[in-house]
Amino acid sequence: MLAAGDITDEQRHLDLHVRATMHLTHAALGAMLERGHGRIVNVASVAGFMPRGTYGAVKAWVISFSRWANVVYAPRGVSVTALCPGFTHTNFHERLGLPPGREGIPSVMWLDAADVVGERLRDAARGKAVSIPSVRYKLLVAAMRLLPSPLAARLARTAR
């Protein structure tokens, strides 16, 4: 939580998810615009569609930034896509000391990393600004958009 935690942790989120995304996008754009084509995929999260503290806020920024960049640069041949996965099997949770099956997340919510990458690269090739893997996460995002803000915040607070 923000009030109880070290602000340095929150600033690291900003550095990693906002500043790094901006710098890497900027670095890639020059050459891509010069040759008249390219694709940039920024990693966001379904958390960016939910009121979820710093992590959700920085992921919302990645989504907004990618949408903006796609509108501006797609006419010049460069698409920018925000990849918004949910829980995906990687070694991330194991590095936190949570072996598979111990994360407290229902198995139905987990996605396979290879599937996420393959499907989302197809979305990037189509020039989609936002790519949300799986029907269940698309439905979750749609539901969050329809809920009144206080209810969405309450539900997001109870989620992991």
From TrEMBL:
Secretion signal span: none
EC number: 1.1.1.100
Superkingdom of source: Bacteria
Keyword Cell membrane set for record: no
InterPro entries: NAD(P)-bd_dom_sf, SDR_fam
Enzyme class: oxidoreductase
Gene: fabG_1
One protein family per Pfam: adh_short
A GO MF label: 3-oxoacyl-[acyl-carrier-protein] reductase (NADPH) activity
Family statement drawn from the similarity comment of this UniProt entry: Belongs to the short-chain dehydrogenases/reductases (SDR) family.
UniProt entry keywords in alphabetical sequence: Oxidoreductase
UniProt protein name: 3-oxoacyl-[acyl-carrier-protein] reductase FabG
